[in-house]
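Take our chain:
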Amino acid sequence: MRLFVICSISVFFLFSCSDEVQNYPVGSDFIENNISIKIIDTFSIKAGTFKLDSLITSSTNRILIGSINDDNFGHLIAQSYFQVRNSDFSINTNAVYDSIGLVLNYDKYYYGDTTQVQTYKVHRLLEFFEPEEGDEFYNTSKLKYDQESLGELSFIPRPNKTTDSLYIPLRHVLGEEIFNKIRNNDINNTDDFIQYFKGITIIPDTLSSSNILGFDFKTSSNLIDNSSMRLFFTEDIDDSSEGNNQVIDFYVSSSSKQFNSIQTNLNNTLINNFTDNETIIPSSESNNLIFAQAGTGISARIEIPTLKDLNKISEQSSTLKAELTFSPLNNSYDDTKPLMDSLAVYVVDHKNRIINQLTDINSNVCYAILNQNDDEFNENTFYRIDMSGFVETILSSTYDLNYALMIQFIDYDKTVNSVVIESFDEKNNNIKLSVTYLNY
């Protein structure tokens, strides 16, 4: 019925405007017909920051490694774990071992300053690749590993070159041992190999804390554009030949057998006192700023407690448009830490439990869309969210819904991007909700 009324009124005004728009006395007929369009943008806003307990980081198809220091988000370390396998375990008895190494193929994702030297160290896992509970690994998950490194590499990243990759030489004795076990039939299949070699973890050097890099992998034996452990050897055809160079490719066994452990130390930051996922640090206690960071679960929270008061204005009304805008803190982003074109928006309850992803009045998923026009002071840089569906949900509910918005990144399970949002400055509130509604 409400939709019929709105459509009827809209059609009426369309025809009226086409004939009378130039001589129409604005407001007079609205008053006579008790119909009016109003815009309210003076809602009170409660902004804060909270931290999700954990994020699933297995099955993301991205190896994420690095270490970075940030004034707003502290010291973040991304460490990757994965299990490797192969289905072909045949080496000629005349073969000669050459070397073993780990290849990491860039997938173009990076965060931070890639002009600085980074160091990766490879370690051998000491326990089977199984999560503590269920079938998933989280950003907080860990597996035991040998403290002695299998190999390491210091390098300057080149993440924009997908044809490039890193090669980390591994200890000669490891490759020789694997080679001999296969050649002597001590390892004949995948199960034999996994019993012997449980997996790998790659740890960044925390002294060179400048960037986080992404690497891709394929769950098949594919030497092109793949991340894998590779065993090189020469196989003689006969005594007079020079032999053929061969390689056994130990690839990531499945996407579920890889995960990224993402830890952050928030000491000396404005958001260093989370006790659980229900803890909300109000912007008034963090320099009027709120924060969101992928990978760690740090999320911005925006609540509009007076929104439900719209129902007190009129019993007969419908939302025509609702839009929330917010601005990132000036000078908190640059080419090494860019703003994303869009951010994910979720509806959460009073305990920060996710209800659903935000949708508009037509049930289409909504995002925070970046508006960024070139200007000297970045005054036209802000995000815009369609709030029509959220407003209608709050106003039409017979319950008092204590819902809020959670701002996060779309790929929050496999990136570490961050954004700092200014909630209030010396002049005004920088988070604003504007609602246009029809009274009839």
User: Anything to note?
Assistant: The first helix runs from residue 2 to 20.
